[in-house]
User: Fold this.
Amino acid sequence: MKTSLDKEEKGAGPADRKSGGPGSALSRRRFLAGSAAMIAMGMAGIPPVRSGPGVPRREASFCSGPGGGAVQCLLCPHSCTIPPGGRGKCGVRENVDGSLYSLVYGRPCSMHLDPIEKKPFFHVMPGTSAFSLSTVGCNMTCRFCQNWQISRAKPEDIEAGYAGPDEIVERALSVSAGSIAFTYGEPVVFFEYMYDIACAAREKGLRSLVVTNGYCSIEAIKKLCGRVDAVKIDLKAFDDAYYKRICGGSLKPVLDSLVEVRKAGVWLEIVYLVVPTLNDGRGEIGAMSRWIISELGPDVPVHFSRFFPQYRLTNLPPTPVSSLEAARKICIGEGARYVYIGNAALAEAESTYCHACGRMIISRKGHMVTGTEMSGGKCNHCGAVIPGIWREGKG
Ligand code: SF4
Assistant:
């Protein structure tokens, strides 16, 4: 039986940058049919997930009861007040008889074994594979979403099935993954599931990685940081109006999340999707770079990613390579030590250079690591300590 982890499909999962990238344009129907089949049949050498009656539903965390049968969800800055029988903006948290429930706990819609570079994490165990999963749902509405088939789907679009946290960890171990990544859709909206998997993974010595828009309450970010090893946040612009108009969110909570993750000592990387005419101004890139240096420090890797027209933003061309190179130059000029360009097949800008001696220490081509000049987290040429997580194992 062909499964989602068969060799030819490794690394062919949904996109991780949720934006940009020349991803295939699956129809919604075809995608959902594939997701349902994936859940029904399980993966290489592992029994299928359970489905049907008996699938547990999970009461949600981070909520309060304002009265009148309504509940308020406090998981993300939307702070939705949800009437009985209603759902929040993300579409996956429902008020059932005055209590808030997650409708996606234990219900992954997509599972793949991906190169960790695809997330992208460039300073976390290079060359290893991440067991990557998502449920449906998202708390933003980005017009350029690359994974809209997941982010915009409703729980009932996916055939019911159940894979609990221990089962996910067993699946990851059985395919020799170096980590588990919560990605593709928006892991904030399946917080309870992600958190429980991260706890189970840590017990088994597996690291957990979060690929998120960072649109999350500080309370939830703090709790998460106690259990995960690395977080990649999409900083979609350095302009609140852009967040509101293009993404259905706001800038400040994302900046707060970036600061909180850094403060917690959890490894952090940033992706900035450069969208022509919308967020590619030199002033904006410069201001963002200065903010990163002053609030997060020079060691946080910044990935400038190439936009490709898709979903509801098809009237713009792909980002010119010159814009990406200009953004990288500005960011380096402001003091950032590790600045990359993604989705553009520029090997030179995908490789890692020692901040102390400037020599190449990790060479990459696409999502492949083609060479390393590091040992024990240090540059082989000058011995400088390179920031990141360089070994597998318990976080
Ligand atoms: S997680 Fe969902 S229900 Fe909760 S506040 Fe955010 S959008 Fe609303």
Notes: The pocket of iron/sulfur cluster is lined by residues 73, 75-76, 78-80, 88-90, 93, 139, 189 (CB under 6 Å). Residues 351 and 363 are 5 Å apart (CA to CA).
